[in-house]
Each structure stands twice: as structure tokens, then as C-alpha cells.
């Protein structure tokens, strides 16, 4: 795959685009909004995806921290260039998750 499916940061706890963090929903996991989801870790480390399409972000600050976390992960596995395309369709708040 050349690029990821649409990504929300943080991932949804229910409904479309549901993500897990250490096997739990975002709400149950205690993860930070900028943490990588299980699926994001998988496609970055196992599938070598380097183009990530982000369509929903909690805030610009969270997006920047998420991007730094993703970049640090791929730098540690030998394919260290990550290209994130962040196109927020709408800004989401924690209460809407």
C-alpha cells in the first residue's frame, strides 16, 4: 500500500473508524490523544506505509505531537522518512469521541 486509510487523531472509541490502543478503545486505554493506535503502529512497522492521510485531528498541537511520535517510530526501524498529509475535514473535541 502506498498510503494509509483515513486516520483520526485520536482514533474513535466507537462507530466508524474505531481504533484501539494496546487492545483497548481510546476511552478505556488511558492513551494520550497524540499516541499511535495499534493499527497505525502496524502499518508503519509491518506494512512500511510512509504516507499517512490524517482527516480528523483534535487540535494542531495534538497533530504535531502525533507526527513526532510517528516519525520517532519509523526512524527506529530503518525506514525513517514519514510523510503525513493532515487534512482536517473538521476539528473534533474530546466530547465528540
Tell me the number of structural domains.
1
Biggest sheet strand order reads 1-4-5
Helix content: 25-40%
Give the biggest sheet: 3 strands, parallel
Number of helices: 3
Q: Termini separation (Å)?
A: 28 Å
Please write out the topology.
Blueprint lengths: L6 E3 L10 E2 L2 E2 H4 L8 H8 L5 E7 L2 H16 L7 E9 L6
Parallel strand pairs: 1-4, 4-5
Antiparallel strand pairs: 2-3
Protein name: Beta-glucosidase
Organism: Parabacteroides distasonis
What can you see in these coordinates?
This protein is an alpha/beta fold. The protein has one domain (7-96). 29% of the residues lie in helices and 24% in strands. The chain has helices at 26-29, 38-45, 60-75; strands spanning 7-9, 20-21, 24-25, 51-57, 83-91. Strands 1-4-5 form a three-stranded parallel sheet, with helices on one face. The longest helix is centred in the last third of the chain and has 16 residues, at 60-75. It is globular, with a radius of gyration of 12 Å.
Describe this structure in a few short sentences:
The chain is an alpha/beta fold. Helix content is 29%, strand content 24%.
Q: Which features would summarize this protein structure in a list?
A:
24% strand; 29% helix; Beta-glucosidase; 97 residues; alpha/beta; two-stranded antiparallel ribbon
Amino acid at each position: 500500500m502506498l498510503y494509509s486509510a483515513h486516520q483520526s487523531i485520536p482514533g474513535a472509541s466507537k462507530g466508524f473508524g474505531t481504533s484501539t490502543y494496546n487492545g483497548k478503545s481510546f476511552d478505556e486505554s488511558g492513551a494520550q490523544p497524540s499516541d499511535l493506535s495499534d493499527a497505525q503502529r502496524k502499518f508503519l512497522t509491518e506494512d512500511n506505509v510512509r504516507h499517512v492521510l490524517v482527516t480528523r485531528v483534535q487540535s494542531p498541537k495534538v497533530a504535531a505531537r502525533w507526527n513526532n511520535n510517528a516519525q520517532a517510530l519509523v526512524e527506529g526501524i530503518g525506514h525513517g522518512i514519514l510523510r503525513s498529509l493532515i487534512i482536517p475535514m473538521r476539528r473534533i473535541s474530546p466530547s465528540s469521541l
